[in-house]
Structures are given as C-alpha cells and as structure tokens.
C-alpha cells in the first residue's frame, strides 16, 4: 500500500479508518566490496512494504538518505548532516500529521540514523502532543538476530552484513549479476574502536568497508526468509501496541 500510488481523495478515505503510516528510512552508503550502496533504504523499503501489505497500512515513500558521515571515505556514499536529517524527519512527520496521520512507524535500515531519528522524535513530541512515534530498526529485531546467529554465527558482523546483503540479493538479483563475487574475502576486523569515527579513521580501520562481516555468506534464500521474519516481527509489535 504505497502512499505514492494513491490519490488525495483515496488517502482522505483511508484516514477515516486508520491514522497509521509506515515510513522506511535508510541510507546511501558503501556496503563493503560486494554490497549495494542503497542497501539500507532498499531493505527498509522492502520490509516496510511487506508489513504494509500484511497489515493494510499505508507506506510513505522512503527517506533514502541518512546520516552516513563516517562512510564518506568510500565512493558513492551520500550523507545528510544530523541537523538536516532532523529537519527532514520533522517536516515529513508534520506534513503527514497535518492531514491526519498520527501514528508513525519508522522502519529503519541504518544504525547511524538511530540517534538522529530519536532526537527528531523528541523535538516532534514537544510540538505535537498526540503523535505516536515508533522507531524499529529491522536488523536489530530479536527474531532477525536469532536467525543471523544461527546461519551466519560470528561472521554477521556490524556492517555490510550477510543478512542485509541477502535481502537485496533476493529483491534486486539483477544488481548482483554485474559483479563477479570473489571466492573469499580477507578476515574483517571485528573489534570496535572509539565511536564515532571520522571518514579517514573509518577507512583506515575497515579498509574495504566491512565491519566484522562476511557478506559472501549472503544468498537470495536467506533474504526471502529475513524479509518474512522481520515483517512478521514488526506486525507483532504493531498488534501489541494497539
Ligand atoms: Zn547497512
């Protein structure tokens, strides 16, 4: 149920019975040597749309750009400053709220957005008493972590993970036909240093962009399973909060 594919009278009609909207948010940033730069917004959008179908809830167009300053040492990364992202989140929520949407589920695909979205939520709640704001980072859902632990063990890592790469492999197989995947990748550094890192520090610490992950474990089948697991878990959270 993509909001962008409806007319204003249809949206007005929807609002008579539901005031809930799903809002995918991600980033455009490097995802290691084999992952797509759009991974975070693509995965969030796929999962949000699945939830939208299951729960018959409108899905707003994705916020593709996120706070990715630390990935700027790699080509293709596009970042918003935290201040800009706060403004974007606030403006989008307030636009939809003016029309009658009052419950927002941000389905997030990027860890670097969490602090900034939370800050935007604090601002919004100061301005509008009756908003219900939820932030669900799909890759941190218990059910997703359990699946990844089982299948990828300690090779899941923290960035450019086989889990998120699997979701894009399932949804956009043609994007992977352009590359010949290497047989193996060097062991990715696992330990975290201080945080946040500058773009230079990040590239020096994680030279190919991976953080402890082995994305060669990714498959389209894992992707299909993870989309179902994540969307079921999010549906469960929506039901629980009713
Ligand atoms: Zn990611």
Number of domains: 1
Largest sheet strand order: 2-1-3-4
At CATH level 3, the topology is: Rossmann fold
Strand percentage, roughly?
5-15%
Give me the count of strands. 4
Q: On the 0-100 scale, what is the average pLDDT? A: 96
Identify the CATH homologous superfamily. Creatininase
Low-confidence stretches: none
Q: What general form does the structure show? A: globular
**N-to-C order of helices and strands:** HEHEHEHEHHHHH
How would a crystallographer describe the biggest sheet?
Answer: 4 strands, parallel
Figure out the total of helices.
9
User: What structural class do helix, strand and pairing data support?
Assistant: alpha/beta
Query: What is the class in the CATH system?
Result: Alpha Beta
Q: What is the share of helical residues? A: 40-55%
The radius of gyration computed from the alpha-carbon positions, rounded to a whole number of angstroms, is 18 Å
CATH second-level architecture: 3-Layer(aba) Sandwich
Distance between the termini: 20 Å
Named once each, the bound ligands are: zinc ion
């Amino acid at each position: 149920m993509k909001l962008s594919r409806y007319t204003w009278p249809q949206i007005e009609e929807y609002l008579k019975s539901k005031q809930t909207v799903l809002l995918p948010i991600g980033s455009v940033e490097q995802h290691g040597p084999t992952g797509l730069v759009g991974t975070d917004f693509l995965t969030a959008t796929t999962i949000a749309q699945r939830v939208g179908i299951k729960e018959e809830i409108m899905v707003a167009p994705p916020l593709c750009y996120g706070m990715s300053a630390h990935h700027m040492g790699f080509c293709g990364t596009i970042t918003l400053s935290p201040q800009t992202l706060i403004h974007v989140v606030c403006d989008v929520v307030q636009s939809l709220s003016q029309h009658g949407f009052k419950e927002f589920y941000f389905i997030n695909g990027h860890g670097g957005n969490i602090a900034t979205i939370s800050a935007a939520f604090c601002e919004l709640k100061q301005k509008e008493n009756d908003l219900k704001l939820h932030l669900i980072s799909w890759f941190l859902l218990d059910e997703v972590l359990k699946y990844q632990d089982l299948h990828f063990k300690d090779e899941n890592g923290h960035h450019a993970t086989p889990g998120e790469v699997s979701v894009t492999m399932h949804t956009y197989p043609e994007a992977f036909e352009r590359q010949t995947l290497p047989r193996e990748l060097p062991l990715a550094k696992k330990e975290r240093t201080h945080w946040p890192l500058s773009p230079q520090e990040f590239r020096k610490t994680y030279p190919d962009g991976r953080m402890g992950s082995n994305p060669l474990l990714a498959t389209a089948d894992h992707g299909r399973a993870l989309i179902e697991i994540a969307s079921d878990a999010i549906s469960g959270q929506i039901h629980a909060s009713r």
